[in-house]
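Q: My labmate handed me this sequence with no annotations at all. I'd like to see what the chain might look like in three dimensions before we decide whether it's worth expressing. Could you predict it?
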Amino acid sequence: MIRIAIPDDAPPVLASSAAWRELQGRAELEYYDTLPGSEERLAERISQTEAVLNIRSSSRFTDRVMGSAPRLRLISVWGTGTDHVDLAAARRRNIKVTNTPGVSAFSVAEHALALLLATARRIPQADAATRRGEWPRGQSVELRGKTCGVIGLGAIGRQFAALALGIGMRVIAWTMHPQPLPGIALVELDELFRASDVVSVHLRLSPDTEGFIGPRQFALMRKNAILINTARGAIVDEAALMEALADHRISAAGLDVFASEPLAEGHPFTKLPNIVMTPHCAGITPEALEAGLRMAVQNVLGFLDG
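A: Here is what I predict for the chain of 306 residues:
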């Protein structure tokens, strides 16, 4: 019977899912509900396995880690991003890598909209002030008629664009693989930054997109602009973003992702009043969770079935 490692189900999501039951009986499972914590520990956990079902992107599958598992033939990633897997090394070693694209598109797009509304309407600040007995009013922004710039029109970006259109925003977009979409005007990237009241990021993290939004882009943006990022933290130069927010070169930001996660205690972001943050949870709804885990398991079973 083939041996499959689940090296990083922490906090546990797979073991309590319906998808887990599909996997049992088909393979010998090496299951861990703690994070490896180091490259060496991850290598130990997968060393005797033919397949890995990867839950957390903090587990980095480097050439060295893959080299420690001579029988490894498959890495099934729960999630869309594969930036934590050395794909070139996997190709050299004839290790297949699969992911679960699209399953969380609705959840992430809804979360991006929630961050936008919370930021524009200053809901966290209003809630805190109301709890203190204050009564602040007239500080929010109406989004209808404003311009929303969407960077990346993959499954999530397209869904978010539809939601922005649905609340009456004008939507413009830039994407690496242009394709016409009803109601959305494709523009050059610099024009998007100049024209948008809202910029929402929906790119994959890759060497081409790391630090994609930095000082130059913030200098192009409007002073009333809001940045939303539910993609990957490293796509945005965080030092440049902090400076832009602190100096009010842009109005606010709504972030679900960060360059280093979890966010360190006392991180400078936590001291900025014009930022709304959530803990990389946009795609973790019960519906998206089960659909993604099921696809990750089906990718393993499909591999076993040839």
